Each structure stands twice: as structure tokens, then as C-alpha cells.
Amino acid sequence: MRSLNPRQIEAFRAVVLTGGVGMAANLINVTQPAVSRMIRDLQRQLGLTLFERRGTGLVPTSEALSLYAEVERAFVGLDRIAQMATELRTRRAGFLRIAALPALANGFLPRFAGSYLVERPKLDLVLSGLVSHAVVTAVAQGQSDLGFAEGSIEHAAVRLERMPPAPYMAVLPQDHPLARKKRLRPADFEGESFISLGYSSLSRFRIDRVFAEHGVRRVMRIETPLSEIACSLAGSGAGVTLCDPFTATEYATRGIVVRPFEPRIHFEFAALYAAQGTPPPVAREFIDSFRAHITAFLRSLPRR
Amino acid sequence: MRSLNPRQIEAFRAVVLTGGVGMAANLINVTQPAVSRMIRDLQRQLGLTLFERRGTGLVPTSEALSLYAEVERAFVGLDRIAQMATELRTRRAGFLRIAALPALANGFLPRFAGSYLVERPKLDLVLSGLVSHAVVTAVAQGQSDLGFAEGSIEHAAVRLERMPPAPYMAVLPQDHPLARKKRLRPADFEGESFISLGYSSLSRFRIDRVFAEHGVRRVMRIETPLSEIACSLAGSGAGVTLCDPFTATEYATRGIVVRPFEPRIHFEFAALYAAQGTPPPVAREFIDSFRAHITAFLRSLPRR
Predict the structure, then answer these.
(1) Which of B49, B67, B206, B229 is the best substitution to test chain A (most A C-beta atoms within 10 A)?
(2) What is the pLDDT of residue A68?
(3) By CB atoms within 10 Å of each CB, which of A16, A73, A139, A261 scores lowest?
(4) Element spanning A127, H or E
(5) Residue numbers in chain A where pLDDT is lower than 70
(6) Which of A 173-202 lie inside 8 A of B, CB atoms?
(7) Does A219 contact chain B (CB < 8 Å)?
(8) H/E segment holding residue A170
(9) Is the fold of A92-164+268-300 the same as that of A166-267?
(10) ipTM strictly over 0.95?
(11) Residue B58 CA to its chain's centroid (Å)
């Protein structure tokens, strides 16, 4: 196979993004016939049908969508090289790519990272929110310098430092009768509409087990993998939930109240970096500062 | 190959989740030797090495992690069947599985969905937040009844209804000098530390093009694929951004101010459902109510 031409890839990407040759041509500043030709050549070279015509638009095939995912990965790589070059030219202090699980990414971590950047005007940042599995993969494959993921999943190419365990908090709609209690126990949840977090996470297992051990039956109407969705749903009165303290506090201004829950169930997570070599100094410094920030935050939580 | 035993799969899942035979045994209520035997049998049957010993724990191999992703998908399927059975037994009014892109999932959609559920006490809900590509796949593969994704990516197995286009808003730290302006234009962003959304989304292309056309140079220090991260970063003073109005409004209580931006750039998204058959009535009703809610919300935004 002849090696692929970067312009063809750019055209392919533009057609997937816009759904049509005209808009794609406009996006990448070439003529429509040029886009059509590049797509045709690419299809022939790859031996794949990449688009199907529907009405005035082009719909990508399943093959095209799979290919697109790879192309995106490669483009991120190319962008990174360009960015590194800029960095070297402008002698910036450094560049940090962090991937974090949703419980941290929906506010707590970006808020900390933002203040961290304000104090370090020469540091650049890419911050992604990914599920824990994807965080591990991003670090293992070198797409992120630093990751934060649930603590129990390990990978041979990744080193792991446990972060302080964080107690799950009870999250209630602000006008809920249980909001009068200072502290909640499993029995308080009997018959309550419960928002379950995660289809099959370790936390879900452990939370369900605590309620089972106490013989408490919740009404399991609502399920979501994301703590931010659970808190938003609770905020609109749809039910109660148990949630990590980072998200719970982040959403506390938005219609929910947050209470300690006993027995304690801990959300456990870790900082990850590539197992080969040592973490870049900028990552090392970030982990240590973030750990201190978490410790202070956990001390500030209501305890009983 | 002998067909796989569900108990083996459960053991595999438990070991991945806990990182050790002891904790896995505890989690699924069997003895440690039973877990070890099931894992050993599974490895032999599959012809794969699934775990490597490290210290006292077991670290899953890359093969195990790939397999795990498939197992999770299958388990979601099994859970769904169990849930449907419960639903039939208890004659609930219905069950709706929605997957939505982050801009809607970080608050706006769950808040609406929560109120919607409060009014429909017999409706159950699974609500996932996924990137647009994954939303399309979830709907195409029947894992979600209803999806909300960026409008331009189509799929042959999915039907699409465009939702009202939503103008990107300027998002600033609340104490930023530009916060005094009622409305922002590209020139206002000259020399500002800018938080870029998305490595390579259509919106990113279009936003960058507007600034390029106006000859405005921003300081591109920070990049994130998630609008909620962009707003949190802005809230801590790290920079300014352009963001969909759903997320911007959701985060407006948390350290940012939101202003109209001109020229208008629109965030375009659509409701998706399986192309075969008609959408379930409960999904049809949800789309229509949600569209009305969006229209009212967009009318409430500051315009100039």
C-alpha cells in the first residue's frame, strides 16, 4: 500500500466532522472536487468504503468510524509535537497532560489545576476526563503524563500511588425530609428512590452490600455511571444517592445537601504515571500538591 | 472451546475489580481456592494469561483488560434483562435508557430528566454521559433507547432529529476585567489565556477559524475535551473560554460569568434513536418535552 497522504487524512477527517463534501472543502480551504478526489483515492488505497450517500450528505460507514478513532489518536500525537516545538521555541516551563476519572474531572481537579496554573504562568496543561479504564490506558500509552483513576485496576506499564481514601457522602434533594438529619445510616434509606452509581463498579458492589447487610430495601429506579449526573438528578428531586465527596461538594450549590454516611465506605483512587523511568518533575510536583489539597479538603468535610 | 461458565466470568470480574484473590473471594462470597481455580480454568480455556502476580496482588494483562471491557458490556446486557423482568413483575410504566454528550450530561439534561421522573413515578431511567461518537454507537447497538450527540456525525443504524442550535457563550473568571462588558467579540480575546475545548472537534475548528479571520492571537495554554473542565478551569482564574450555554449556565454559580459572544457560533446537536422501527413512545415523549425545555432555556439567555 502506498503511504497515506496527510492531506487525504485531513479531508477524511473534515468529511466525517461536517457530513458533506461542500462543508469539508470550506473547513480545510480546498475546492469540493479536490475533497472528492482525495476521498476517492483514500478509499481505493485502503480498499474500504468510507462513506454512503444519504440525501445531500455523506454518512460514514462503520469502518470509517473505526478509522476515524485512530486518526484522532494520530492527530493528537501530531498536535503534541507541534505544541512541544512551540514550547521549546518559547522556553515555557513545561507541559503537563493529565487524565482524570469523572469524580475528580467534573470540578474538583480542574479547579485545583486552574489555581496551580495561575501560580505557574509558564506551565501549559491538557486536562481530560475519562473513565478509570481509559485513564490507565492513556497513561500506559504515553498520551497522558499523569492520571487519576480508581485504585484497584492496575496495569504492568503504569506505576501507582494511592491517594487519601475519601468517604462516600449521602446526597439528598435540599427539601428532602432526611435533610434534617446530621448524619445518615443505611436504615434511613428504606423505601427511598435511590440513584445508583455505576453499572458494575467496585463501589457499586460495596455500597449495595452494605444496604443488603442492613436488610434495607431501596427503590432502584435510576442508574448512572457518572457521579455528576447522580448529583444533578438528586438536585432535581428525583432521588437520593451516595457519592464521592469531591462531586458532592462541587454540586452542593445546586439543589442538594451533603451529609456524612455511616458505616464509612471509601472511594479509593490513585495517581498513575508510566512505570518506565521516573515521573517528569512537573508531574511529581503536581501529585504532591494535589495530595496536600485533598488532605485539607477531606479534613474540612462534616464528620458527624 | 467449552462454553464459558458465568461463575468464572464473575470471578474474573471480581479479581480485576479488587486486584487480588482474597478480596475477590470476599466480594462474590466464595472461598479463595474456588476463585483461584476458576481463574486458572478460564485462562486455560481462553488460552490467555489474564493476570500477573505483583507483590501480594494480581495485575491484569492487556488481554485481560480488553476482555474485561467486553465482559462489562455483556453484564450490562444481563442486568438489563433482570431489570426488565422486575419491571414486568411490578408493572412499571416504562424504562428509558439515555446516553448524552458531556455538554448536556454535566447538569442540564440530568436536571431536566430528574424533574421529568418526579412527574412520572413509574418511569425508570438509566442515564449515561458519553462522548458523541460513543453515544452514536450506544444507540446503534441498542444499549441506549435515546441519545444526544453532536449533530454532524451520522450512522446508518441511527435516525437523527436536530435540536435547537445553541450559541456558544463567552465564559470568564468572575473578577476578570472583561466581565464588565455586556457582550464579547473576538478582538476582546487578544492576548488572553484561552482554554480550548476539544482536540479536534468541529466546534474547535469553527471557533479557531473565527479568531483567525479576525486576526486575534490568543495564548493557547490550556486544552480540554470537556466543557465542564473548561468552565471549572475558568472559575479558578486560569483563563477564558467559549462554551455551550448548557454547561456555562450550569457552572455560573461557581466563579464564572457568562456573556453573549458575537459573531454567533452555534453548538449543534441532535436526538438519536434506532433507525429500525419507531422510537418507543416514552422516548418520543422525552424528546418533545426536552426540546420544549431547551427552546425556553435558549430564550432566557442574555442576548446582547
Answers:
(1) B229
(2) 79
(3) A73
(4) strand A123-129
(5) 1-4, 73-93, 152-154, 199-200, 304
(6) 199-202
(7) no
(8) strand A169-173
(9) yes
(10) no
(11) 30
Chain A environment of B202 (Cβ under 8 Å) = 17-18
Residue A1 identity (one-letter amino acid)? M
What is the grid cell recorded at A223?
A: 442508574
B125 touches chain A (CB under 8 A): yes
The dotted CATH code for B92-164+268-300 is 3.40.190.10
Q: Beta strands B169-173 and B241-243: pairing type? A: antiparallel
Q: What mean pLDDT is predicted for residues B229-246?
A: 95
Q: Is the pLDDT of residue B64 over 90?
A: no
Of A225, A234, A253, the CB nearest to B253: A253
Interface check A27 vs B, CB under 8 A:
yes
Does pLDDT of B90 surpass 60?
no
Report the residue from B19, B126, B234 with minimal CB separation from A223. Answer: B126
Q: How far is B183 from chain A (nearest CA, A)?
A: 24
Which pairing describes strands B256-260 and B169-173: parallel, antiparallel, or unpaired? antiparallel
Higher pLDDT, A53 or B250: B250
The CATH number of the domain covering residues in B6-71: 1.10.10.10
Name the fold adopted by A166-267: D-Maltodextrin-Binding Protein; domain 2 (3.40.190)
| Crossing angle of helices B202-213 and A6-18, rounded to 10° | 100
Could you tell me which chain B residue has the CA closest to the CA of A50?
A: B155
The residue with cell 486486584 is B19
| Domain range list for chain A | 6-71, 92-164+268-300, 166-267
Nearest alpha-carbon partner for A8 in A94, A84, A87, A71: A71
Task: With CB atoms and an 8 Å threshold, state whether B228 touches A69.
Answer: no
Weakest mean pLDDT among A186-200, B91-105, B250-264:
B91-105
